[in-house]
Amino acid sequence: MNKNNFVAELKWRGMIHDMMPGTEEQLNKEMTxxxxxxxxxADSLHIGHLVGVMMLRHLQLCGHKPIALVGGATGMIGDPxxxxxxxxxxxxxxxxxxxxxxxxxxxRFLDFETEQPNKALLLNNYDWTKNYTFLHFVxxxxxxxxxxxxxxxxxxxxxxxxxxxEGMSFTEFTYQLLQGYDYLYLYKTYxxxxxxxxxDQWGNITTGAELIRRKEGGECFALTCPLITxxxxxxxxxxxxxxxxxxPARTSPYAFYQFWMNVSDDDALKYIKIFTQLSFDEISQxxxxxxxxxxxxxxxxxxxxxxxTMVHGEEEYNKAVTASQILFGQGTNEQVRSLSExxxxxxxxxxxxxxxxxxxxxxxxxxxxxxxTSIVPSKGEARKLIQGGGLSINKEKVLSAxxxxxxxxxxxxxxLLVQKGKKNYFIIKVI
Length: 431
Known about the structure:
CATH class of the largest domain: Alpha Beta
Number of domains: 3
Low-confidence stretches: none
CATH topology of the largest domain: Rossmann fold
Mean pLDDT: 90
Number of helices: 20
Strand content: 5-15%
């Protein structure tokens, strides 16, 4: 077993917000089974989930046994923690589909196949709650936790004392009992002694530990990580177009890579510890390099490399780097032509597009950019641009105004990338 100290590992990475007394001693004493709940409301994780997933990853690397618990039952209800309103409830078929998709993504972080005793597990709490009757639940679970205790939790108190005119449904009020029952079930079935989560989950987690103490006389522990924020106060993992997803169909590997490349210096110095497995010495060296030449953005570059490779693999990372080089003035005709349609459109998102019928090709380049599109206002302007070396097609400089453009040049048999000057891009789509 890897003798790394899990708590010490998380501490220097800034990944511990709160921890029950005795947690570190338990982890140092023996291989400990720990779980973390994941909300299955979508068929993909987003980067807001990554802190929890990295906690599970570090746990397994330190020799302990991780359980990723998909909240199929609790996902049908919705967690009131730090939310002002109830969420939409999902049906079982959707939840099962989401669970399978999430497992595929988690397998990049956790080892579900090892023969070692700390093999990772993926469980769904729907499996042990679906046949549990309401009467049994209130008799077996409800009687052990008082309403006073439940009302004292921040997640409940804030909803009841806030401006929300709708208040809080009984369904949501019982959420902490359901999560507490999960902890009890995992304690009895898998010997689970630690629950982890975001700092907003502290109330729910401690309810579970209290339930185990009262019902089984057992000792369990809790560990939470800080909720990740951005230095400018914006919400982490959110862009103008919404969440940054791990599913490449929702967020392209290029856009994913760019998210990490574009984080601020302050955020990069924090994220490099949380979202990578680089050692203390490696990160110290990176920070030293950064302080000597902040403009080189070495920390962002390494962060983007580590996280993109971990989520999408080396090949997609390399494609994202190539795509970035193309966008920012470097890159070759071969590199442009090698881009997949999705990556190409992702790289040049927001670039003006023109459509022309395929029957127009072949066509002299001046006709193409000045007559059939309005990239330049006239053929005379087009000639001037070409003479000055300011026009490229697919990253290849156009040397003559009479140069024909034909179908063999199309990217993905559909697109032409026109570059006017250094920074002005246009796409011609052939239909």
